[in-house]
Amino acid sequence: MTHAIQLLLVDDHTLFRRGLKALLEQDERFTVSAEAGDVGEALRCLQRVLPDVILLDNHLPGVRGVDAIPALKEAAPAARVL
What we know:
The chain contains 3 helices and 6 strands, in the order βαβαβββαβ.
């Protein structure tokens, strides 16, 4: 098998992130590298991890997820954003 797909979860609801992480990590194809509750925290995470995929909530405090995509792509150009 190739390497597991590295994920960054970005959602302001901690319980949702925990549940999604638990669900995703049941599948050996995925590894949650980091979690963030807002865009600022996500950008800080990207200074230490480079995920393959960023799972991004569109309803975040202070900014819509879609508006954060350019900054996330600048910090992690190879990552796909969903």
